């Protein structure tokens, strides 16, 4: 009778404790408990005591739970896992990085792992075909402040050696993660450590660093890095040249940007639509529409078709120069070529017609973009609201603000 009561307690009150054990552990635990305890102890045995009894966790038991995808067990065990046990488990999973990723996710990468174990986990997971999980874990590690960039690099080196990996891809990933976090100093420090240790970054890594320099307007740093590439005889890709051409355009060195195309071609690298569109955009920003047109002609003569960005640059440049009719013609040509304008392109035209005082055409373009399935942005509404306000149409402006709220578009400071 008493054994029956104990069974009821264990069945209904201690499911959480039971999940912490394999069947063999449960049997041995329960049998020894029933044999050693007196009748009085059995009656007073509380569910709380059973719940707090830690299981005997071994790496074999842990590995079996992982192999059978019993992740709820893993989550319960997480608080009792030592760095040593986690490390052994990760080493056992080095040939199955997908399981290593699930393991680290379920036990909590941020809370359970120290820097050494984190870097080992990252090294194992870096064997996955997709770099995204590795980059995410690296960004979490860098953002946590658990170690300096040099500290992370050194721990990744130790993990790499422990796994017997010859590839230096981990270091490239570390630079890429730094670039995605916009940490240029970390990226360059990691780059310098790689060089110190005799590793050559991949061209994609150089491109990530050059692109970051461009976004941060660190043009001088970008040219120093590019000179380093040439010194190390790294073969540039079309993406590399596009970044450098963009830098020249930012520096308003449009002639040199055009000359760079010839330099590319002399090395057997064929310019693409981005190459030409970047220079066209540079000319349009300076209001030099004829120069942009010349580049467009060269582009088309070489069989490179303009894209939406190419046309949008022309439309923007023409509108700024007050050449609204020509901009409208280019917009028509863009649609004739079955290129879908973006919200930005529509906003450029809406802004131009608002400035001209032609609200009818401005709203026509707004209606057209909606028919095309392009959702008007806060900028679209701000342009129209401002134009209505300037014409004293306060009621209509108020209606537009209400419409923004109905469509879930947040009002910003400009609104």
From TrEMBL:
<dbReference type="Pfam" id="PF01535">
    <property type="entry name" value="PPR"/>
</dbReference>
<keyword id="KW-0677">Repeat</keyword>
<feature type="repeat" description="PPR">
    <location>
        <begin position="307"/>
        <end position="341"/>
    </location>
</feature>
<feature type="repeat" description="PPR">
    <location>
        <begin position="377"/>
        <end position="411"/>
    </location>
</feature>
<dbReference type="InterPro" id="IPR002885">
    <property type="entry name" value="PPR_rpt"/>
</dbReference>
<dbReference type="Pfam" id="PF13041">
    <property type="entry name" value="PPR_2"/>
</dbReference>
<feature type="repeat" description="PPR">
    <location>
        <begin position="272"/>
        <end position="306"/>
    </location>
</feature>
<feature type="repeat" description="PPR">
    <location>
        <begin position="342"/>
        <end position="376"/>
    </location>
</feature>
<comment type="similarity">
    <text>Belongs to the PPR family. P subfamily.</text>
</comment>
<feature type="repeat" description="PPR">
    <location>
        <begin position="167"/>
        <end position="201"/>
    </location>
</feature>
<feature type="repeat" description="PPR">
    <location>
        <begin position="202"/>
        <end position="236"/>
    </location>
</feature>
<protein>
    <recommendedName>
        <fullName>Pentatricopeptide repeat-containing protein</fullName>
    </recommendedName>
</protein>
<feature type="repeat" description="PPR">
    <location>
        <begin position="237"/>
        <end position="271"/>
    </location>
</feature>
<dbReference type="InterPro" id="IPR011990">
    <property type="entry name" value="TPR-like_helical_dom_sf"/>
</dbReference>
């Amino acid at each position: 009778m008493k054994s029956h009561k104990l069974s009821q307690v264990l069945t209904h009150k201690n499911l959480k404790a039971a999940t912490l054990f394999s069947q063999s552990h449960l049997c041995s635990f329960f049998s020894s408990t029933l044999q050693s305890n007196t009748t009085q102890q059995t009656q007073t045995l509380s569910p709380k005591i059973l719940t707090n009894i830690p299981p005997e966790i071994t790496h074999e038991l842990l590995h079996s739970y992982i192999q059978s995808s019993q992740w709820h067990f893993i989550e319960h065990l997480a608080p009792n896992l030592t760095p040593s046990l986690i490390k052994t488990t990760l080493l056992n999973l080095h040939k199955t990085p997908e399981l290593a990723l699930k393991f680290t996710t379920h036990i909590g990468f941020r809370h359970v792992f120290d820097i050494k174990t984190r870097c080992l986990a990252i090294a194992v997971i870096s064997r996955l075909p997709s770099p995204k999980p590795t980059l995410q874990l690296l960004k979490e590690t860098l953002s946590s402040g658990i170690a300096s960039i040099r500290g992370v690099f050194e721990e990744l080196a130790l993990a790499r050696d422990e796994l017997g990996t010859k590839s230096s891809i981990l270091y490239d990933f570390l630079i890429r993660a730094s670039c995605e976090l916009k940490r240029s100093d970390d990226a360059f420090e990691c780059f310098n450590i790689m060089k110190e240790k005799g590793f050559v970054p991949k061209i994609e890594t150089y491109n990530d660093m050059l692109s970051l320099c461009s976004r941060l307007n660190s043009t001088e740093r970008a040219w120093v890095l590019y000179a380093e590439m040439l010194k190390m005889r790294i073969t540039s890709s079309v993406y590399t040249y596009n970044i450098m051409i963009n830098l020249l355009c930012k520096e308003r060195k449009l002639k040199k940007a055009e000359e760079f195309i010839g330099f590319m071609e002399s090395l057997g690298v064929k310019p693409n639509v981005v190459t030409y569109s970047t220079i066209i955009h540079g000319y349009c920003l300076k209001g030099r529409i004829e120069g942009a047109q010349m580049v467009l002609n060269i582009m088309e003569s070489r069989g490179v078709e303009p894209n939406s960005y190419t046309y949008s640059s022309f439309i923007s440049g023409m509108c700024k120069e007050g050449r609204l009719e020509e901009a409208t013609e280019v917009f028509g040509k863009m649609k004739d070529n079955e290129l879908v304008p973006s919200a930005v392109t529509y906003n450029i035209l809406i802004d131009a017609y608002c400035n001209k005082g032609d609200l009818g055409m401005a709203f026509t373009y707004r209606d057209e973009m909606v028919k095309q399935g392009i959702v008007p942005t806060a900028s679209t509404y701000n342009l129209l609201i401002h134009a209505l306000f300037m014409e004293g149409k306060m009621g209509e402006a108020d209606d537009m603000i209400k419409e923004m709220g109905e469509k879930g578009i947040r009002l910003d400071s400009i609104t």
